[in-house]
């Protein structure tokens, strides 16, 4: 398979979650409020809410003579507008759990029987400043394994 197939499959899975915001299968470099809104805001009236997907690492190990195993650690980052008085952290935490529940389904579905999928883990959830805006931020890690042919 390929990393592109895996990124695409994770993106489609997250996009199937209701009210999840915008999902991108790469990590952007954003510098301005306008870029942040373009990337994570569905409409002018909507709050910032979105996700990115990237690979943190891949470890390749010997499986058989002609086959190795790639173990990818994918990182899914979530961003949501922060409003302390509106208790937006609770809604963001619920969205994180909805994303994890959807990814957990792939332990059985295996992204179309292409990858072995491990449980999704929340590595961090915190408030932070991103492009000068207060946001809720999270990282979900998802380990996925695949067999690769040795030439």
Describe the fold and architecture.
This protein is of the alpha+beta class. It has a single domain, classed as 2-Layer Sandwich (STM4215-like). Helices cover 30% and strands 40% of the residues. It is built from 4 helices and 6 strands; from the N terminus they run αβαββααβββ. Strands 1, 2, 3, 4, 5 and 6 form a 6-stranded mixed β-sheet that branches. Strand 1, helix 2 and strand 2 form a beta-alpha-beta unit. The two termini are 14 Å apart. The mean pLDDT is 94.
Short summary:
This protein is of the alpha+beta class and 151 residues long. Helix content is 30%, strand content 40%.
Describe the protein's topology:
Layout: H1 3-15, E1 22-24, H2 33-40, E2 49-62, E3 67-81, H3 88-104, H4 106-113, E4 116-117, E5 121-130, E6 133-149
Parallel strand pairs: 1-2
Antiparallel strand pairs: 2-3, 3-6, 4-6, 5-6
Write the CATH fold name.
STM4215-like
- Which geometry do the CA atoms define? elongated
- Radius of gyration computed on alpha carbons: 17 Å
The domain tally reads 1
Strand content: 35-45%
How would you spell out the order of helices and strands? HEHEEHHEEE
Largest sheet: 6 strands, mixed
What is the count of DSSP helices, taking H or I runs of 4+ residues?
A: 4
Helix and strand composition category: alpha+beta
Q: Determine and state the CATH class.
A: Alpha Beta
Distance between the termini: 14 Å
């Amino acid at each position: 398979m390929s990393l592109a197939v895996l990124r695409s499959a994770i993106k489609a899975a997250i996009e199937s979650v209701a009210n999840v915001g915008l999902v991108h299968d790469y990590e952007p470099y954003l510098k301005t409020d306008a870029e942040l809104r373009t990337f994570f805001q569905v409409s002018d009236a909507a709050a910032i809410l979105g996700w990115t997907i990237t690979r943190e690492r891949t470890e390749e190990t010997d499986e058989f003579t002609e086959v190795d195993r790639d173990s990818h650690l994918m990182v899914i980052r979530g961003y949501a507008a922060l409003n302390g008085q509106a208790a937006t952290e609770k809604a963001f935490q619920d969205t994180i759990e909805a994303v994890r529940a959807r990814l957990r389904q792939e332990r059985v579905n295996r992204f179309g029987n292409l990858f072995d999928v491990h449980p999704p883990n929340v590595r961090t959830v915190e408030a932070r400043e991103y492009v000068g805006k207060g946001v809720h931020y999270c990282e979900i890690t998802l380990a996925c394994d695949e067999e690769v042919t040795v030439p």
